[in-house]
Amino acid sequence: MTDPGWPWTQSETEGPDEDHLAAACARLFAGADGRLLLSHLTRIILGTSPGPEVTEARLRHLEGQRALVLALRHLAARGGLSLLPPLL
User: Fold this and answer.
1) Counting C-beta atoms within 10 Å of the first and last residue's C-beta, which end of the chain has fewer, N or C?
2) Which among 87, 18, 15 has a CA at the least distance from the CA of 26?
3) To 10 degrees, what angle do helices 56-78 and 18-30 make?
4) What's the CA angle centered on 70, arms 13 and 30, to 5 degrees?
5) Model pTM?
6) 75: how many CB neighbours lie within 10 A of its CB?
7) Cα–Cα distances in Å, from 63 out to 36, 48, 50, 68, 70?
8) Which residues, at least 6 apart from 21, have a Cβ–Cβ distance to it below 8 Å?
């Protein structure tokens, strides 16, 4: 039996389709404020190097953040946003 409280138990057909989601993400980051936010997230999360003393918990947290930023960048690019901040 699946737990209905977990989002990944939902059917892939529920909610917005991928094309609509990608277009919405591109619109979100197309304006000046969106570009500023995406640039900031790219810089502080993808440009972070934790060093050898990093704890496993911190490393897992950082990798989750990186996955989220990369997923947003991918959706925005798929939705038609062409001016993404450079990867660091």
Assistant:
1) N
2) 18
3) 100
4) 85
5) 0.77
6) 19
7) 22, 10, 11, 9, 10
8) 75, 79
CA dist., res. 33 & res. 36, Å (int): 5
Maximum Cα–Cα distance across the chain: 46
Q: Count the residues in the chain.
A: 88
Per-residue pLDDT of the chain (88 residues; tens, 9 = 90+): 455 666 665 555 566 799 999 999 999 999 999 999 999 999 999 998 899 999 999 999 999 999 999 999 999 999 999 888 888 6
Give the Cβ contact number of residue 54 at 10 Å. Answer: 13
CA atoms within 13 A on the CB side of 72: 20
Sign of the C-alpha dihedral, residues 54, 55, 59, 62?
negative
Place of tokens 């993808």: 46
CB contact set of 30 (below 8 Å; sequence gap of 6+): 81
